[in-house]
């Protein structure tokens, strides 16, 4: 057997964050999350299952990488297909180099689609979302375009993402402020586990996020950008509060992240509808309208450099290419 398939998946940024797993092996989260898939950042992955291979190989941006997580993911695919054949995986991340946005979301969504198709499985989008989840939780959402909710469920069968609005036609987009980090970041996997294990605020994070999700869906249905931004910003800061309150504490903020968040607040004071969110890294993402984006870019360019500001509009779900 030799079968080759290529797929593309876009990354997503959560407006309601996923942070913490009930089941670390199956990646079942403690709370539902909700994200916007972005057009600007994506991963292309080609998977070739080939009888003549004696091991799995993985190339990222043309460089051979030893990644146990990729092999583990291929094991799950082989197990589902009941086939014992190794694969060559070739991925290209279409994100600006060193952007720190090279998200596992686009990576595992593209890998789930390419690998399952190449091995001969014909999965529904829901099944693909479940499969992508096994690689990285946020990848479950990147199977779909636009605004997407990951329903936490309780087990492998009922934990998957569903589209809320695949084709976003109202005025919402993001600007990512690229911030360089000199320190090695704590990956999301170990960061969230440490928050679950040691933050006294973790329970309140889960509890209040349930209401955030209800309010967020209401704001989305009303196309209320200010409300969407407010809830997203507050939700993100509550997530980060579980890192600051972990023991020992840690943070993804660096001085420039704080500078960026202040700049967004200042723009807001001057009447611009813009809010920020942050993930497991120092970059700050602004939630804003397309209409006000030029003004925001103009104000932020002198502070962060025009090249470090990347505009991303809503993007599509994973596709075979
Ligand atoms: O999917 P992971 O394991 O990379 O975790 C993603 C965690 C956050 O990006 C911080 C939040 C989210 O919901 O995407």
Automatic annotation (TrEMBL):
Residues 176-306 form the Mvd1 C-terminal domain. Keywords: ATP-binding, Lipid biosynthesis, Lipid metabolism, Lyase, Nucleotide-binding. GO terms for molecular function: diphosphomevalonate decarboxylase activity. Residues 9-161 form the Diphosphomevalonate decarboxylase-like N-terminal domain. Gene3D superfamilies: 3.30.230.10, GHMP kinase, C-terminal domain. Its EC number is 4.1.1.33. Belongs to the diphosphomevalonate decarboxylase family. PANTHER family: DIPHOSPHOMEVALONATE DECARBOXYLASE. This is diphosphomevalonate decarboxylase. It comes from Dellaglioa carnosa. The gene is mvaD.
